[in-house]
Design goal:
By secondary structure, the protein is mainly alpha-helical. It folds into 3 domains: 115 residues, no CATH class; 106 residues, Orthogonal Bundle (Cytochrome Bc1 Complex, Chain D, domain 2); 95 residues, Cytochrome c-like domain (Cytochrome Bc1 Complex, Chain D, domain 2). It has 18 helices and 9 strands. Strands 3-9-8 form a 3-stranded mixed beta sheet. The chain has a two-stranded antiparallel ribbon with strand order 1-2. The chain has a two-stranded antiparallel ribbon with strand order 4-7. The longest helix has 13 residues.
Length: 371
């Protein structure tokens, strides 16, 4: 795949790109609160990064807008939607001190929280009794579903919220993971690789038990969507983005930056953890028009399959209130062909004409709705 520098064909833009590459932006995680990520690394470059560098070197912002560098620089999946842990990423060591989260009397050490065969159950009153495949998994191949997707099925930006999805849909997705039909446009991402391995090892009765459990849960509203020109500086932490602790902001550009409101609570796998997603100004309304079949019918009305207010229809999943990072990845994976399978055959022709900016708008709109 050509590098982003190679994908910028205009010679004038190349001159300014060279200026940017001579002084790349470095992000440092706060070592005191997030020691696991306390290292400097160059962020994955995007049109936004190029634009910020141009502004630092005194180039007029109007030049950036005129040439729409975000669209020109994209060559492949948008890196901000597919966070990949840096090579030197190391989880914080376990101090042995149990962690707590608001509204729970439970306490778990980091070692217990990271046990992939034991789902931390911070709020047992939020859900029915978990089947063993959700709470414990089955050693050695099948990890507990409730670890990554949380006991309440809320998941996170790095994976999927399963609460309230149709059982038949969940079963079909596991079949697609098992067959290899459902993949990802960025093979380095571990969450999809773990799902593929689980799909190949899990039994049909175990899938059915997990599907019945998660489909019976009520989707939770745990996301705030903000239209803004700026967003918190962020870094990759555990296959998702997190805001640096300095409070610094940076230009958003044509991206979605979705971060936990409290990183420690989310890292502790608290199903009540909340998130904030920063989306470009005007993207929610533009996404609403696209989803309704507007802009010349670039896509058919999303409600045809996903129901009124995108809350789901029959065996089709609801997408309202979902992580916009997750939605962007799925739409892009449909478009690239990385996500295949029976249901994907309906989605790919729907998204094949969408640009990354179109996908951002649709994800922003869907995420802004009540689940």
């Amino acid at each position: 795949m050509p590098s982003e520098k190679e994908s910028i064909a205009n010679p004038i833009i190349q001159r300014f790109t060279r200026l940017m590459w001579q002084s790349p932006r470095l992000v440092r995680a706060d070592a005191e609160t997030t020691p696991a990520a306390a290292c400097e690394f160059m962020p994955l470059m995007s049109g936004r990064s190029i634009g910020a560098a141009m502004l630092r070197t005194g180039i007029a912002a109007g030049f950036l807008l005129a040439f729409n560098l975000t669209a020109l620089a994209h060559d492949g999946p948008p890196e901000w939607a597919y966070p990949v842990n840096p090579p030197d990423f190391k989880p914080a060591p376990d101090t042995g001190i149990p962690r707590e989260v608001p509204g729970s009397s439970a306490a778990y050490t980091l070692t217990q929280i990271r046990d992939l065969f034991s789902a931390a159950d911070w709020h047992p009153g939020d859900h029915q009794s978990m089947p063993e495949i959700v709470s414990q998994g089955r050693k050695p191949e099948v990890r507990a579903c409730g670890v990554c997707h949380r006991a309440g099925g809320t998941g996170g930006p790095e994976n999927a919220s399963l609460a309230g999805l149709p059982a038949t849909y969940i079963i079909q997705q596991m079949a697609d993971y098992k067959s290899g039909a459902r993949g990802t446009s960025v093979p380095e991402r571990v969450p999809v690789r773990l799902m593929t391995a689980t799909g190949k090892a899990i039994t049909d009765p175990e899938v059915e038990a997990a599907a019945a459990y998660f489909s019976a849960l009520k989707p939770q509203a745990n996301l705030k969507v903000i239209e803004s020109d700026i967003a918190p500086k962020s870094y990759v932490f555990g296959w998702h983005l997190a805001a640096t602790t300095t409070g610094e902001m940076e230009p958003l550009g044509q991206r979605i930056i979705e971060v936990p409101d409290n990183l420690e609570h989310f890292e502790s796998r608290d199903g009540r953890a909340r998130f904030t997603a920063y989306v470009p100004p005007g993207s929610i309304e533009r996404g609403r028009l696209l989803a309704a079949g507007g802009e010349g019918g670039k896509v058919p009305s999303c409600a045809i399959c996903h129901g009124s207010y995108l809350k789901g229809l029959g065996p089709m999943p609801g997408i309202a209130g979902r992580s916009p990072s997750y939605i962007v990845r799925q739409l892009y994976d449909f478009k690239s062909g990385a996500r295949a399978g029976i249901g994907s055959a309906l989605m790919r022709p729907t998204v094949e004409n969408l640009s990354v900016n179109d996908i951002i708008a649709l994800a922003a709109y869907a995420a802004s709705l009540s689940p």
